[in-house]
Amino acid sequence: MTRLTEGDLKGLDNQIRDYDKNLKKICGASLMEIAALAGDITTASFNEAMTKHTVGVIPITSGQGIIGNFSQSVKSFIDYLGFHAFVTNSHDVSGIAEAIARKASLIFMADDNQFIAVNLNAKKVVDNGEATGRGFAAALSLLAGGLKNRQVLVVGAGRVGTHCVNYLLAEGARVAVFDIDKNKISSLVPNITIEDNLSDAVSKYRYIIDASPEQGFMTLDNLHPETRISAPGMPLGLTADAFAAFEGKVIHDPLQIGVATMLAMAVNKS
Length: 270
Ligand code: 2YJ
Hints:
- By secondary structure, the protein is α/β, with parallel strands linked by helices.
- Helix content is 44%, strand content 17%.
- It is built from twelve helices and eleven strands.
- It has helices at 6-9, 12-27, 31-38, 43-52, 70-80, 92-101, 128-144, 159-170, 182-186, 198-204, 240-245, 256-267, and strands at 54-58, 84-87, 106-110, 115-119, 124-127, 151-155, 174-178, 192-194, 207-210, 228-231, 250-252.
- The protein has a six-stranded parallel beta sheet with strand order 8-7-6-9-10-11, with helices on both faces. A five-stranded mixed beta sheet has the order 2-1-3-4-5, sandwiched between helices.
- Strand 4 and strand 5 form a beta hairpin.
- Helix 2 (12-27) crosses helix 5 (70-80), helix 3 packs across helix 12 (256-267) and helix 7 (128-144) packs across helix 12 (256-267).
- The longest helix has 17 residues, at 128-144.
- The relative contact order is 0.17.
């Protein structure tokens, strides 16, 4: 799993409004609408939840420690979605105590292995890997005008990729998966095609989800000009020139869609 860096997150808090505008331009839906679709709630329930929840974001020092901009970015995305959020002054266990003392009903926290949201009222834990997989699959579906019966390639069968696959299958897409580790694919549900040559697969599919840490495998040479890409993977799988040429056809961010979907899933009552 890729560890985010301070540089990956620099300036994202101030750019969230523009990021959202760009999402609307690319897939016709806002960050909130993507998250609501992925989190299986209506935007009306999402709006209602805002008035009922306070969100505490807790910096965690364990492992490799605090990542500059991480908690602040998470807080700013949650604020932007209309909830009241704060970053605790204390970290780790004291941070949890502080969040609860300050009446948080939702808490967000991450170590090097896992990033979770906890709904303290509902005793519900939401994992960022699942939320990110669902969020980026939902965004691709919006970008494509629906994926039923469409062929979609998912690159990477880790936690995020697996949840993309599940979401796509539930939507009726025909799903193919590539992962260098064949054992990861064999643990996936049936009904998928297994691709074993990444570059050939990239040229064959018009819808691709990049959920891998592999860099630069989508190029101007192997991508079809009509291909649409949803890319939760860090770093990005497109080369710099392919990324520039595919402007308007690629959804990619390090944290925003995942955090927004965690929020939607955390407040979903089912
Ligand atoms: O609180 C902090 O500042 C740090 N403990 C944050 C650590 C963030 N964790 C990661 O980047 C992990 N790789 C897990 C993130 C999952 C994102 N998909």
